[in-house]
Every structure is written in C-alpha cells, then in structure tokens.
Amino acid sequence: MDMFQNILLTIATASTPLLIAAIGELVVERSGVLNLGVEGMMVIGAVCGFAAALMTGSPWIGVLAAIIAGMLLSLLFGFLAISLATNQVATGLSLTLLGIGLSGMIGENFVGQAGIRLPNLDIPVLTDIPMLGRLIFGQDPLFYISLALTAGVMWFLFKTRTGLTLRAIGDSHKSAHALGINVLKYRYLAVMFGGGCAGLAGAHLSLVYTPQWVENMTAGRGWIALALVVFASWRPWRVIGGAYLFGAVTIGQLHAQALGFGIPSQFLSSLPYVATIVVLVLISRNRRLTVMNTPASLAQPFVPDR
Amino acid sequence: MKKILFALAASAALTVASGALAADKYKACFIYVGSKTDGGWTQAHDIGRQMVDKELGDQVETAYVENVPEGPDAERALERFARSGCGIIFTTSFGFMDQTLAVAEKFPDVKFEHATGYKTAPNVTTYNSRFYEGRYIIGQIAGKMSKTGTAGYIASFPIPEVVMGINAFLLGARSVNPDFKLKVVWVNSWFDAGKEADAAKALIDQGVDILTQHTDSTGPMQVAEERGIKAFGQAFDQISAGPNAQLTAIEDTWGPYYVKEIKAAIDGTWKGGQSTWDGLKDGILTMAPYTNMPDDVKAMAEATEAKIKSGELHPFTGPVNKQDGTVWLKEGEVSDDGTLLGMNFYVEGVDDKLPQ
Fold first, then answer.
1. Which of these, B181, B137, B179, lies nearest to B351 by C-alpha position?
2. Domain coordinates of chain A in residue numbers?
3. What is the rounded distance in angstroms from the CA atom of residue A80 to the CA atom of residue A88?
4. Which chain A positions have a beta carbon within 8 Å of B191's beta carbon?
5. Of A125, A210, A273, A276, whose CB is crowded by the most CB atoms within 10 A?
6. DSSP conformation class of B64
7. How far is A231 from chain B (nearest CA, A)?
C-alpha cells in the first residue's frame, strides 16, 4: 500500500511544475498574448530560486526570488511584444533562448552545490494516516499552492468582473479598446502573472523536485506547459487534468519498465506525448466548444489608435 | 564622443585578437555535448582540457564549445573549428561519430579524435575508456551491500557502451551473489535531472535498495540520499550530492590521455586510424574513494581493482550465457574487444528486454 501512495506522490511532484507554469500561461493567452518564453522564464526562476535560497539559507526567499525573476523577464517580453508590438512568436522564442543562456551564466558558480529543499508539510497525526495521509497532508507547499492557484484563476476568470474584462480583451482587443478599457495595462499584468508562475514552476524544480542547479534543468517542461494550455482548450480545470495525465503516464511508464513487461522502452517513453495528442484530438472534435474558448485575438499585436 | 570610444574599443579588441594569433601556439579544440559544469561526463572532459592548459600551456592553446547537440549542428561546429586553425579536434560524445568522419574527410590536414566511437579514418583516431572494469567492481559491491538482492539501473540509450555496462555490473554482482537481480529503466536521455530522479523513485518503490546509472545528472544520487539507500556516482565523484549514499564512483580521467595525444600531434608522431581503449591500469578511469561500506566490502573492492589492473581478472570471462540461455563464453574464455564494442545482447539474469 505504501508503494501505491509513493507512486501517487511521485506523480504529484512530476505534475506540479507543469500545472503552475501552464496555469500562468493560460491567463496570459486568455488576455490575447502568446508568450512562448515559458521555458526561458522557468529556467531563470530555477536558477535564481536556487541561488537566493543558497545565499540566504531560506528556501522561501528562494521561491520569492524565482517569482520576481520570472516577472522581470516577462516584463522584457511585455515591453517588446505589447509596447513595441513585435511579433509575439519570435519574441517568445528569443526569450527562451535568452533565459537558457542567462541562467547558465548566473548559475555557473552554483553547479554541483548541495541545494536546500523546501520542507514538506508535516501535521502531527494527520500526515501519518496510512494510505493517504502523506498524499493529502504531507506534500511540499508548492503542491498546495498549485491547486490554490488553479482554483483562484478559475474564480478570477469566470466569477469576477476583471476576469470578464480580461477575457473580453483576449477575444477582441479592438472592441475592448473602444469601450475604454486599457488593453495594454491588462496585458502587462497578465504577462507578469504568467512570468511569476513560470518562475515559481522553476523554483519547484530547483527547490523541491531535484534540489540542485544544473544547466537546462527544465529539460523542455516549459514547452509541455505551453502544449497543456492548448490541450486544456484554455480552461483552468482541464489544465489540472492534462498536467496530471502527463505526469501519471510519465511515471507509469517508468514503473512499467522496472516491472519488466518487455514492452520496448522507446514506445513507453513516447506514451505521455501520444496520450496528450489522443486526448487533444478527442477534445477538438467538439468544434463549437473549442472555438468558444479560444481567445480570438491570440498572438495578434495591438497598437491603440488615438 | 561615443563614436570615438567605440573605435577605441574596436581597435583594442583587434589588438587582443592579433596578439593571440602572433603567439602562434598549437591549437587543440574540444566539442562538448553538455555543459562544462554538468557535474558529470562533460565536466570530466573539461577537467582533462584544463590539464592540457596547465601542462602544455606555453605551446598549446585550447578552445571548446559546449552544449553541441548530436546531429547536423555538430557538423557545423566541427567545420568552424577546422577552419579556425585547430590542429587537433576532440569530439567527446558517441553521437558525434558520423559528423566527425564527414568533416575529417573535408579537412585531411586536421587531426580528429572521437571518444567512444568505433569508426576511424586516416586522420581520425578513436579513444575510449574501459568503463566496464569499474562497473564490474561496483556490481560486486552492490552484490555484497544489497539486502533485497536487487539493484536498479537507470540507463540512457541502448547503445553497445551502455549494454556492456549493464552486463558488467550484473556479472560483478552475480560473482558474489548468484541470485542477484537487476531492474533496468531507460529514460532515453543523457541529461534530465527530473526524469532521472523519477526513474530512481520508481525503482526504489519497487524494492530496489542500490542504484546505479548511465546518465549524467546527480538527480538519482539525491533521491538515494533522501530515501536512505546507496548509489554509485557516474563519470564524476558525486559525493557532495550523496554524502551518505555514494559507495564509490567511476571517475573519468581524460587529462593524461589528452596531454599525450596533443604532445604527439606537435611532435609529428600522432597516428590516425588508431583505436585506443585504455582501462584502470592506464589511469584513464579511476575509482572514487570507497565510502559508506563495511571494511570487508571495501577490501574486496580494492582486491578486485588490483586484479583488474594487473590483468589477472577480466570481467568478461566465461562461463557466461546470453540472456536466452545460449552459451556466449565457455569456461575460462575471455571476450574479444570487438564483441564488447558492438555488444547488442544481455547476459543471463538481466530482468529487461533489450530495446532494439
């Protein structure tokens, strides 16, 4: 039974950074901006979080530093893509390249140093409940934050007036502008939220997942987060489903290998991607729903006319 | 004012560049697949390069390029080096093999050395380390130390080098515990700390109490430390990631080989078409200090190391059966190097199906 709980714990750890980064990007895309720089902001978050935690001795300061670092990098993207209305795809891609290069430079002196782990939640009695105690009451704080973030984004987007405005901007920035809404301000804030989330996801990697810094440690997770947003057809609760499906298949295939079923490992390794594509195809069969949820002015630059 | 400053800076840069050229040192270049601070494979090569700088610094200038992906990009990086006046170029990953040969054909005057490959040319020599000797030793240690009698092996790609390592590990373990079992998990990556850690967790959850890896990050070592089990370092002493977990590590020590080859290239005694395959006795691989184990296990490991060095023991000595039970090596028969370098089968007892 312990094994069952352990597997679920491993899945939760693998899925959490994907969920955090994806939920941030979802808000960005709902505002009509496509920031392909998630991977770059994530890796910058990972290195800054690690460095700050190591220098101050406090993993929470590391988490904070990671969020700020992600936000700063996203501001650069915002300046180029929102204020100067550059091509968002190209700007996002170069943000990733910049993030990876910059993180290698910042992290050069931190490679191979023993990291600090963000302590797991530990509530006496509750955490020790067999089977599910550690799963519900004994995980790392970022796991709970990731779920709270998702719930918060759901509430914000669909239950508040500001959320409605944000979605309206994503659907038609021209109409929103005509109504007197400050499109650029909303988009800046959304992009910064996305950057903060990507930084936080990076902190999860370097302070919880594998508490260490190595170059390129995000290993493509930012791209998967981007795919998850599309997979979720821009709806927050589906991001949880997607992130956990991806995590579960990833961990499941490792277990299947260790059990020695004799299935070729290359096939098993590709399963998470195959599963994601299959679900994506199934979802997109409902065209009306897909069109309804896709931000219509996604990736289109907006220059307000006077 | 700005313009003047810029002109000054530009001319200063030019002076520096021509100054370097004027010294007319022999240029040795290195292509790395990873980052030079990866704490594993590439860092070991870079330490070798630094040794060249230290020992031959007055005659040799070294250059390197990091994070070169295996594939067409490698060919571009190689060509750039070849054009920029490199006398000898070391390509330090198996996946650079075909690119090395392609570029070598275009630049017959440049010398090439390719690590861990098996194709040579008149100006291409290969060099490799008998990692399997170290893997046999750590297998023996695992055989003694494991309480569950099962070890976990985190593997990268099913190339002969990795398969050979798995076989050597199991033969070592079975030499002290004939019922020893080995679970293999392929992560299909050389370097993904998170995924390697996940694989380590999966293996531990399935009852493995010793981990070894043929991937390059310290992720698995960290998991071993957290979960209180033992593990072996890869390519590099990883004791800082697992002070209570690391039993020993197989350390790659490329420096002396690089110094020797570059000296030969300068003297004109360098030869192409060679395949160097050195082992423990040549010092190209060394064992990190044996830690976290009882004295008798340590003594056994040291004795085995000495026997391999003296040539008394070859890890691949019969009787050894293939996985399907057919005889591979008869009693007392020693495998030839060719079979080892092209190894595409498991020995009896590996609990995995080899990906083809």
1. B181
2. 2-293
3. 8
4. 214, 216, 219
5. A210
6. E
7. 22
Q: Residues B308, B199: one domain?
A: yes
CATH domain A2-293 topology: ABC transporter involved in vitamin B12 uptake, BtuC (1.10.3470)
Which strands, in side-by-side order, build the sheet including B124-129? B60-65, B26-31, B88-91, B111-115, B124-129, B275-278
Residues B109 and B39 in one domain: yes
Q: Which amino acid is at A153?
A: V
Indicate which CATH number applies to the domain containing B42: 3.40.50.2300
Helix axis angle, A2-30 to A38-56, nearest 10°: 120
Kindly state whether residues B329 and B185 are assigned to the same domain.
yes
Residues B226 and B140 in one domain: yes
Site of tokens 């001795």: A57
Beta carbons within 8 Å of A143's beta carbon, 6+ residues apart = A12, A13, A16
Write out chain A residues lying below 8 Å of B219, CB-based: 210, 212
* Distance from C-alpha of B253 to C-alpha of B234, rounded to nearest angstrom: 12
Which A residues, 10 through 29, put their C-beta within 8 Å of a C-beta on chain B? 10, 14
Residue in B199, B219, B241 nearest the CB of A254:
B199
CA atoms within 13 A on the CB side of B102: 14
Which domain does B245 fall in, by range?
A: 131-251+284-351
Interface probe, candidates A209, A265, A268, chain B, greatest B C-beta count within 10 A = A265
B86-137: pLDDT as tens digits: 999 999 998 899 999 999 999 999 999 999 888 899 999 999 999 999 999 9
pLDDT by residue (tens digit) across B48-93?
Answer: 999 999 999 999 999 999 889 888 889 999 999 999 999 999 999 9
Chain A residue with CA closest to B240: the answer is: A114
Sign of the CA dihedral running A22, A24, A29, A33: negative
Total number of domains in chain B: 2
pLDDT at residue A306 in the model: 56
* Residue A140 · residue A121 · CB < 8 Å: yes
Which neighbouring-strand residues pair with B213?
B154
Q: Taking CB atoms and an 8 Å cutoff, what residues of chain B touch A201?
A: none
What residues of A are in contact with residue B198 (Cβ under 8 Å)?
10, 14, 250-251, 254
Quote the mean pLDDT of chain B.
89
Pairing assessment for the beta strands B124-129 and B230-235 based on DSSP bridges: unpaired
Q: Is there a domain that residue B16 lies in?
A: no
Contact B209, B146 (CB under 8 A): yes
Closest in A7, A209, A258 to B194, CB measured: A209
Paired tokens of A16: 């959490």
| Cβ pairs bridging A and B (under 8 Å) | 114
Which phi-psi region, left, alpha or beta, contains residue B113 (left: φ > 0; alpha: ψ -120 to 50)? beta
Q: Are strands B285-287 and B246-252 parallel, antiparallel or unpaired?
A: antiparallel
Clarify whether residues B212 and B346 are in a common domain.
yes
Domain co-membership, B63 together with B142: no
- Supply the pTM of this predicted model: 0.85
Domain membership of residue B81 (yes or no) is yes
Could you tell me if B105 and B209 lie in one domain?
Answer: no
